[in-house]
Amino acid sequence: MRKLLLSMLFLFTTTTAFATENKMTQTHPKVKLTTSMGDITIQLNPEKAPISSANFLTYVKEGFYNGTIFHRIIKDFMAQGGGFDTDFKQKDVHAPIENEADNGLKNTRGTIAMARTNVPNSATAQFFINYKDNGFLNHTGKNANGWGYAVFAEVIEGMDVVDKMAAEPTSTRNGNQDVPKTNIVIEKAEILE
């Protein structure tokens, strides 16, 4: 009887652990960005950034990011993409989303945050990957200087590709600075099952 109880307890614990791990995988979606320089896999955090994560996944599902470029890369700062096609034309986007920069996630190396204008709630499709800990981009208060930039994901594979992008020469293009001279293209963005 004792062996049966121990066996049932082991089975319950194993099943629960598997279910928890499976749930974690489902609740933290992964997206693979196939780029012209290599693959980058990111993991989203919808628990802490539900609006930004859902927004990003919507664009991925629609194929929006396919054929867009990383249009602004500043070594030792960040790489920004998700808004311009290979002809440097800005793509049409959905309505801006609410700024979730007060979610507790920090702009540290390898994290991904929503790009926006000086208006706090203006983020749409563009995002950036932090090359280093950029504490000055974190939320400090809901005022002109403190809104911050909402982190919603992190690179879990391919940070070497992101680092390689920073070595590419940049120039000014169509009035925009820090544009890679050779297009770095997001060939495909897909949700990993």
Can you give a write-up of this model?
The protein has 193 residues and is of the alpha+beta class. 24% of the residues lie in helices and 31% in strands. It contains three helices and ten strands; from the N terminus they run H-E-E-H-E-E-E-E-E-H-E-E-E. It has helices spanning 2-27, 50-61, 159-166; strands at 30-35, 38-44, 68-74, 78-85, 111-114, 127-130, 151-157, 170-173, 176-180, 185-192. An eight-stranded antiparallel beta barrel has the order 1-2-7-5-6-4-3-10. Strands 8-9 form a two-stranded antiparallel ribbon. A hairpin with a 2-residue loop joins strand 8 (170-173) and strand 9 (176-180). The protein is globular and about 40 Å long. Residues 4-25 have low confidence and may be disordered.
With helices defined by DSSP (H or I, 4 residues minimum), what is the helix count? 3
Q: From the alpha carbons, calculate the radius of gyration and give it in angstroms.
A: 19 Å
Structural class: alpha+beta
Fraction of residues in helix? 10-25%
Mean pLDDT: 90
Strand proportion: 25-35%
Instruction: Note the gap between the termini.
Output: 41 Å
Biggest sheet: strand arrangement: 1-2-7-5-6-4-3-10
**Major sheet characteristics:** 8 strands, antiparallel, barrel
Based on Cα principal axes, name the global outline: globular
| N-to-C order of helices and strands | HEEHEEEEEHEEE
Q: How many DSSP E strands?
A: 10
Low-confidence stretches: 4-25
